[in-house]
Design brief:
Elements lengths: L1 H4 L24 H6 L22 H15 L27 E6 L5 H11 L7 E5 H11 L1 H8 L4 E7 L4 H16 L3 E6 L13 H7 L7 E6 L18 H10 L3 E5 H8 L7 H4 L5 E7 L5 H16 L4 E5 L8 H4 L4 H17 L7
Parallel strand pairs: 1-4, 1-5, 2-3, 3-4, 6-7, 7-8
C-alpha cells in the first residue's frame, strides 16, 4: 500500500540539471555579429517561388517581378569598385537608378518573406549580404562603433533591414547617417518599416512618411507597394494559461537542452548583457522555461525583453512559463505609449512560443 503513495513523479527527470540563461554571459566576436546577419531560421527556405501571390492583388505579383530583377541586377562587381583589379582595368560604371527598395504594405502581406527571398536570390556570397532588423543594426553599431560598422558593412553588396523603426528619432538619425555612408560605398539597400506610434491603428507606415523620415536617403529608395488583406483589427492573441512552478520545473528537467530561470532574475541579468549578444545567449537551447512571470517593472527592462523575445522567435525556441500570462507583461501605460508596437509584437511572439511549449508538459 505505502509503495503506491510514494511512487516517483509521473514525468521522468533528466539526469542533468537544466541550463540557465542567467549563468550565461556570452562574449561574441565582432565577426560573428556580422556573420549572423542572415535571415532567421524560420525564413531559411523561403524563396520568390514559395511566395504565393493573391490573384486578387496584382501588386503582389508585381513585387515578386521587381524584386527578382533587383536581385539579378546586384550580381556584378561591388558598386564602389572595391576588390582586386589590375591597375589598367576599367573602373565599373556607377549603377543607375535607385540603389534601394522599400517594401510598403500592411500586416500579413509577406514583406519579410519577400525581403528574405531577395537576400537569398541576390547572386553574391553570404558574407557579402546582410539581413537584420532595425534593432539588430543599431545593436551592431553599439557593439562595433559607427566607423567600424561602416567599414564592415561597406564591403557588402546588399543590406536588408526588416522592421525599420521610426519611433526613436535618435536611432532613426543614426541609421539614416549609416545608410548614407553605405550608399556612398555602393551597398544596395532594401527595407520594410514599422508604424509610427500615432499610426499603429493604420497597420502600415506609408512610403511617403518613410521617405520623409530618412530625408536625404529618399532618392536612393524605390517604393514598392504590396497590397493585401490587412490584419490590423485582429487585436492581441489570447495567451495560454500559465502552468504551475512545479510543472514548469519538472518539464525543464525532463527536456534535454532546456533552460530554467526565475523571470525576475532573468530580467536583471538581461541588463548586464548587451542586446547584440541575446542571440548567443540562446545558443543550443531547445526550450526556455520560466517561473514566476511578473509584470515588467519599467520601460528599459521592457525593451530588453522585446529583443530577447525576437531572438527566441527567430530561433523558434518554445517558452514554458508559470506566473502571469504573457498578455499581462506590460502595463496599460506601456501599451498606450510610444513603444507600444514593440510590446504588441513581443506579446504576440511569446504567446506563439508558449503555445509551442505545451507539448513539454506531461501532467
Amino acid at each position: 500500500m505505502s509503495s503506491s503513495t510514494t511512487a516517483p513523479a509521473q514525468s521522468p527527470i533528466a539526469d542533468a540539471a537544466p541550463l540557465s540563461l542567467c549563468a550565461r554571459e556570452p562574449l561574441v566576436p565582432a565577426d560573428r555579429l556580422v556573420a549572423e546577419m542572415v535571415p532567421p531560421p524560420r525564413f531559411d527556405s523561403v524563396r520568390f517561388e514559395t511566395y504565393i501571390p493573391d490573384p486578387n492583388q496584382p501588386s503582389q505579383t508585381e513585387a515578386v517581378r521587381v524584386l527578382s530583377e533587383f536581385a539579378a541586377g546586384l550580381g556584378g562587381a561591388h558598386a564602389s569598385g572595391s576588390g582586386k583589379r589590375r591597375w589598367f582595368a576599367k573602373k565599373p560604371a556607377a549603377p543607375t537608378g535607385p540603389r534601394g527598395v522599400y517594401l510598403d504594405g500592411g500586416y500579413g502581406v509577406g514583406k519579410t518573406h519577400l525581403l528574405a527571398s531577395l537576400w537569398h536570390a541576390t547572386p553574391a556570397a553570404p558574407e557579402q549580404k546582410a539581413f537584420g532588423t532595425f534593432v539588430e543594426l543599431t545593436n551592431l553599431v553599439g557593439a562595433l562603433g559607427f566607423q567600424q560598422t561602416v567599414r564592415t558593412l561597406g564591403e557588402h553588396r546588399l543590406l536588408c533591414i526588416d522592421e525599420f523603426e521610426l519611433d526613436d528619432p535618435g536611432d532613426t538619425v543614426l541609421v539614416s547617417t549609416l545608410l548614407g555612408k553605405l550608399v556612398e560605398a555602393g551597398v544596395a539597400l532594401a527595407a520594410t518599416s514599422n508604424t509610427l506610434p500615432g499610426k499603429l491603428g493604420e497597420g502600415r507606415f506609408a512610403s511617403a512618411d518613410f521617405l520623409r523620415e530618412i530625408q536625404g536617403l529618399s532618392a536612393h529608395f524605390r517604393p514598392l507597394r504590396i497590397d493585401g488583406e490587412d490584419y490590423r483589427h485582429r487585436g492581441l492573441p489570447e495567451a495560454p494559461a500559465p502552468f504551475s512552478d512545479e510543472l514548469v520545473t519538472k518539464a525543464a528537467y525532463a527536456t534535454p537542452g532546456a533552460s530554467l530561470d526565475d523571470f525576475p532574475h532573468l530580467l536583471d541579468h538581461l541588463a548586464r548583457v548587451h542586446p547584440s549578444r541575446y542571440g548567443a545567449l540562446t545558443d543550443d537551447l531547445k526550450a526556455v522555461c520560466l517561473t514566476d512571470v511578473q509584470p515588467v517593472p519599467d520601460q528599459s527592462t521592457a525593451l530588453r525583453l522585446v529583443v530577447l523575445a525576437d531572438r527566441l522567435y527567430d530561433r523558434e525556441i518554445p517558452v514554458l512559463a508559470s506566473g502571469l500570462p504573457f498578455d499581462r507583461l506590460f502595463s496599460e501605460e506601456m501599451l498606450n505609449g510610444g513603444y507600444r508596437k514593440k510590446y504588441f509584437r513581443a506579446i504576440s511572439r511569446l504567446t506563439a512560443l508558449a503555445r509551442d511549449a505545451k507539448g513539454l508538459v506531461h501532467a
